[in-house]
């Protein structure tokens, strides 16, 4: 194949590849900084906190929840579409932030793609239609990531809504009367998946 044919082939494939990559990772979750006055009946507002308690190897600590399918007993996502929350805080000990997301109503679980494992049993949290729910505060104790699963459980979950209310009210004024603790149930741990071209 001569140079011009090779170049033409690359240029003609570029728009296709771009469209394909743009479609990868479609996500119906939207971060919110203020609570909407109205929540659609097929959606909910999911709120949680992220905190750093100890030193961490990287400059930030990202954490997310994936939509969970109770029938499949796994995340409901794929390489093409994955409804997930995504948040990140600076990794300095003492840092804490509360985040809110407009999500499709359903169940959400600690993502298998998070940088550190969650202590305790795997749980799914219900974002019931039309509600504002609090999952809890995920705290990273700090440490180093290990390749042994039992050593990688660096994150704990505190679901005490009453203790969190003052900080939640500062982050989202007016949230208190609308907020309830998300229902939780123990589930099989979701699995990570690999996407390849």
Characterise this structure.
The chain has 197 residues and is of the alpha+beta class. It has one domain (26-186). Helix content is 16%, strand content 34%. The protein is built from two helices and 13 strands. It has helices at 3-23, 161-171; strands spanning 30-32, 43-52, 60-63, 65-69, 74-75, 87-90, 96-104, 106-110, 123-127, 132-140, 155-158, 179-181, 184-186. Strands 1, 2, 7, 10, 11 and 12 form a six-stranded mixed sheet that branches. A five-stranded antiparallel sheet has the order 5-4-8-9-13, with no helix packed on it. Strand 4 and strand 5 form a beta hairpin. The longest helix has 21 residues, at 3-23. The two termini are 24 Å apart.
Which structural traits does this protein have?
globular; 6-stranded mixed β-sheet; single chain; 13 strands
Whole-number count of domains: 1
- The Rg value, from CA coordinates, equals 19 Å
Number of helices: 2
- Give the helix proportion (percent range): 10-25%
Largest sheet: 6 strands, mixed
Indicate the overall shape. globular
DSSP summary, beta strand count: 13
Distance between the termini: 24 Å
Which residues sit in consecutive blocks of at least 5 with pLDDT less than 50?
Answer: 2-23
Q: Determine the structural class based on helices, strands and strand pairing.
A: alpha+beta
Could you tell me the mean pLDDT?
84
Order of helices and strands: HEEEEEEEEEEEHEE
DSSP strand content: 25-35%
